[in-house]
Fold this protein.
Amino acid sequence: MSETLDTCNERMQKSIEALKNELNQIRTGRASASLFDRVRVEYYGDRCPLNQVATVQIPEARMVVINPYDKSLIKEIEKAILAADLGLNPSNDGKVIRISIPPLTADRRKELVKQAKGIAENSRVSIRNIRRDGNDDLKKQQKDSLITEDELKVSEDKLQKSTDSFIAEINKIFEEKEKEIMEG
């Protein structure tokens, strides 16, 4: 019984982490190293994450400086950033790559908020599906006489409280991201 609740809580926590990771990929008007988490650079035949072949620094709010460990990779890093379709234009001076983060237009901000809202809703659905799976498992345990009807009711209530708190956390995370996008 408590094993089912623990498993559900664990899965719900993973959904929250996935939500945070997905929302970090959404560009706001500010520079952020997490923007480049999905950028893969061709390096001796392998596709490596950008942070393994260069340092990503944020010297000011709208500027990113990428300093490759191997200067011969500058062209490859530029290509990878353009291929990642982040809407950014890298420029290099032979030593480092500088990327100026343009301010977002009002329409683009609304589009990004809508995208973030969709991601948050998918997370809510995921949490509810985990709750349903947990309730099904608890009912099966009760049917197999592993737990009593009272224990089933108590466990379902605990699972519902847990679900409510995770959904509240998703709402809070979304509101913070929406604020971040809108203020840019």
